[in-house]
Amino acid sequence: MTVPQLLKAIQRDGGYARATRGERFLLGAYAVFLLSVAVALVVWSYQRLLDHPPGGYLPLAAFGFAFPTCFVAIAVVLGRRCFMEVVFTATSVTCYGVLGRPIWIEGLAGLIEIRHILGARGTGAVKLIWPHQVRAIPFDAWWEGLLDREFARAEREEMARVEQAYDREHPRWKCDECAEDNPGEFELCWSCGRGKSQ
Ligand SMILES: [Zn+2]
Description:
By secondary structure, this protein is α+β, with helices and mostly antiparallel strands. Helix content is 48%, strand content 18%. The protein is built from four helices and nine strands, in the order αβααββββββαββ. The strands form three sheets. Strands 1-2-3-4 form a four-stranded antiparallel β-sheet. Strands 5-6-7 form a three-stranded antiparallel β-sheet, with no helix packed on it. A hairpin with a 3-residue loop joins strand 2 and strand 3 (92-96). The structure holds zinc ion (ZN). Residues 175, 177-178, 180, 189, 191-192, 194 line the site of zinc ion.
């Protein structure tokens, strides 16, 4: 699918992307896990400092401060993703953060590619790529749903095309005897049994 086709599909679908309940649960679980590890590290290093002064200062700096800080930062990022919302309009795409504050806005005009990144740990991401900019939507269930609906729609359209082509090749005909309307593939009138006149 080309970028214009995808944008059309996104807008037909509501132009709205947010983490599903399952994705929120997953993101929240990761965040809680990281926070627990951070707390455990802080407690462990202070305990170690109390037990082995002064040799505990270096581990305290790393395990009691640096690592926990990183884990808390990642947990905050994951938590924010739960509340992130991305809204597509005809001309632009806007990402809203917690409390509906806009995080970024981009025009759709120069968009060259939309790339789906599969997630190893559950949620994937959809990358919007401009020549000067890359923006990521850090969850993908909405995207997979969109593609499924798009695929089903394309299939329905193909079926309709095939049926129309068939109807053109086998036009309906009217019985000479009883004036009943008959499908093109019937050789005899379904009502009175008289053959199709040539
Ligand atoms: Zn007939």
